[in-house]
Each structure stands twice: as C-alpha cells, then as structure tokens.
Specification:
The chain is mainly α. It is built from eleven helices and no strands. Bound molecules: zinc ion (ZN) (2 copies).
C-alpha cells in the first residue's frame, strides 16, 4: 500500500511539474486536437458519433494485447485457466454478438449524451478543461458507485428464477477472454450499464470527464475478462482492485466475486469465501510441487 502511495505521489508531482512548464508538449498537443475537434464538429457530433467511434476504437484496441497473447507461447504462463485455451469459434461467436450489441443497444444509450450535457450545462470548451487530478478523483468515485450498483444487480441477475433468461448469456464463456467484457443480453447491458451513468449524472463537470471515465471503465472491464494475469499491470496500483484472477474465478465457478472493480463488497458479504479457499488450495499445491 505504501508503495502504491509513493508511486501515485511521484506520478502526481511529475504531472504537476509538466503542467507548470511554459510549453508543456502534452498539454499543448491535447489543446490543439481538442480545439480543432470543436471547430470542425458540433457538440452533438462530438457527444454522439465521435463518442461512439471513441468507444469502438478503444474497446478493440484494449482487447488487442491479450488477444495476441494466445499466439505467443511465452505468455501462456500468465493464462489463468491453463486447461481452457481460447478457440477461434468462441471468439468469432463473441465478436458477432458484440458488434450487434454495440450498434443496437449501446449506440441508442450514447444518443442520450448530448441531451444530458445540454440539460445540465456541461461545458466542452478547452478553457473550462479541469486539471487531471480533478478528473482522476471523479473517475475513481464513478468506479466506486458503479462497483456498488454492479455488485447488487449482478447478484440479482444470478437469482435462480431469472438467471437463465438474462445473465446466462454472459456466462457462455467459462474461461473468458477480453471481448467477453461486453458480451451480454441487451437487458443486462441496460441494467448493469446504469451503474456507469450514476457517476456521470453526479460528477460530470466537463465533457472530458465522460470520456475519461469511459476510458478507465473499458480498461478495467476488459482487463478482468482477459483470462491472463499479466505482470506490471498498472490497474493493480489502485487500492482494493479485484483484477483478472478475481473475475475469472466468477466465470469458472458461476458463483461469488460479484463486484466489477473492487473487492470490498464481496469481503463484506462473504461472497469471496469460495475464491479465498480456491486460492489457498492453489498456493498449497504450488508449494508442495
Ligand atoms: Zn455473473
Ligand atoms: Zn464477466
């Protein structure tokens, strides 16, 4: 934990230093692209078409590294469920439904973004751009709200009376891979997706906040579905982050570890018990080998 604190402080100081440089290359590049986007496109275009494109490009770009891992023998030691490698059929099946889901379920949801920002007077301009640390704590809080919503709704979706109608689809893959993150029944996309909007409704102070939160959420949800516990994963610097092993166990076991990002709700309600026992057993057998 102390190590996390030191790393975060170093990153913060380095970025603050960069911000005070007279010609901060990172900030001026961002300013250039942001202002030219706003000059060439209307706010509606940015909130709708560019946001949709942003989501598509990011989603598949984030999925790419772990997708490539299946072709690299040296990466196989990081695969969590060693006995269940990715198959072409499964990945193709997932991709097809995913594209349909993105166009016919997620895009209509994205359509509401412009109306929301107009209704609440959310600024888009460069002059109102918040500092990175202001956006960072808002994004973290968004993740806390989303994780809470996700925990309780996800548990509800596992209720034996409704499981087979909605959530069973996401569990088609007992050994998940990155693309599985958004592979879900349309009702699930809307129900669990609401958790994403809680933070947006409560904490957005600039349009960039929505994109920053989406960026984080995509990194997080793809990471926990990759099926690989990769070393040097910066997301593990986040206090109480669950990670790939945590959610992979949920897919393997169909029970427990209901949270999306953090581990506290499962700890509080004891729904991580089977995971703890499984991990302890694995560690024991590793030691005896
Ligand atoms: Zn589930
Ligand atoms: Zn999942």
């Amino acid at each position: 934990m102390a190590e996390n604190g030191t790393i975060l402080t170093t990153v913060r100081l380095a970025t603050e230093y960069l911000e005070y440089l007279p010609h901060n290359p990172l900030r001026s590049t961002m300013e250039y692209y942001w202002t030219s986007m706003l000059t060439n496109y209307s706010k509606f275009d940015v909130a709708t078409w560019i946001s949709f494109l942003y989501h598509e490009v990011l989603y598949f770009a984030i999925c790419l590294p772990a997708f490539l891992c299946q072709f690299i023998p040296a990466m196989q030691k990081y695969k969590i469920q060693q006995e269940k490698p990715e198959s072409f059929d499964n990945q193709w099946k997932c991709f097809k439904l995913l594209v349909l889901n993105h166009f016919f379920v997620q895009f209509p949801l994205i359509l509401g973004t412009y109306t929301f920002t107009e209704l609440f007077g959310i600024p888009y301009d460069w002059e109102s751009m918040p500092a990175w640390y202001d956006t960072a704590w808002r994004v973290y809080l968004c993740a806390v709200f989303e994780d809470t919503w996700h925990y309780f709704m996800h548990r509800l979706l596992h209720h034996k009376r409704i499981y087979k109608y909605i959530h069973k689809l996401h569990h088609n893959f007992q050994a998940p891979f990155g693309m599985v993150a958004e592979y879900a029944h349309p009702v699930e996309t809307v129900v669990l997706g609401f958790g994403f909007f809680i933070g947006v409704l409560l904490l957005t102070n600039h349009f960039i906040m929505i994109w920053a939160w989406l960026l984080f959420r995509l990194f997080e949800t793809v990471d926990v579905h990759t099926g690989y516990d990769l070393p040097f994963n910066p997301l593990h610097l986040l206090p109480f982050y669950g990670g790939a092993r945590f959610h992979d166990f949920h897919h393997m076991n169909f029970q427990g570890n209901y949270s999306s990002t953090f581990t506290w709700w499962d700890k509080i309600f004891g729904t991580d018990q089977q995971f703890k026992e499984f991990t302890a057993k694995q560690e024991k057998s590793l030691k005896s080998d």
